[in-house]
Amino acid sequence: LKKTHGKYEETTFIGGALFAQTDESGKVKNEGNAAWRAKNYKEAFTKWEQYLKLIEFKDDATVYNVAVCATKLKDYANAEKYFGMSIKNNYKVASSYLGMADAQENLKKIPEMLKTLQDGIKATPGQNVKLEKAYSDYFAESKLKIRKNFIKNPVLTQTKRIDTTQNTNISFLFIVLNIKLLPFLSKTSWAFSCYL
């Protein structure tokens, strides 16, 4: 502890950076911690963000916690922002990529979400099982939606009936998406079949 301008400061080493935690910032952080324990996520977010501004965002663990808190509040814009900061801080990298991708999906930012998952898979070899699963699950869900929409479409349903009567051999609808899957793969064609 050292006294500066009449206030005691505690110098802390977190995430590779030294910063001084004043009485004020420490108090605000503790209020955020208490709000989190009480599951008052709105208050926790407000206090932790205030704390981060006081210390110029030099607390990697709290940056990540704010992102998680924003997710619980369904504040996906801030979740994306703080998970992005957490990635830059190299803190809980795999979880941060996954959280950022989830926020982007909820914001309907699908191209960004897919890029985040791809970047996360590249950045976390050996610890990216959840990222790979999220990536493949997205396309599996897309296939299901395409199939449901096809079946519900009255024009397509009528076409199916005509084709069946005429004994045509159309039995599948193939939609091919060219995507970049993993670092060690070049372009992979995903063929999704939807039974008519």
Task: Please characterize this protein's 3D structure.
- The chain has 196 residues and is an alpha+beta fold.
- It is built from 8 helices and 5 strands.
- It has helices spanning 23-37, 41-54, 60-72, 76-88, 93-106, 110-123, 129-152, 154-165; strands at 2-4, 7-14, 17-22, 172-180, 187-195.
- The strands form 2 sheets. Strands 1-2-3 form a 3-stranded antiparallel β-sheet. A two-stranded antiparallel sheet has the order 4-5.
- β2 (7-14) and β3 form a beta hairpin.
- α2 (41-54) packs antiparallel against α3 (60-72), α3 (60-72) packs antiparallel against α4 (76-88) and α4 runs antiparallel to α5.
List keywords for this structure.
196 residues; alpha+beta; two-stranded antiparallel ribbon; 8 helices; 18% strand; disordered C terminus
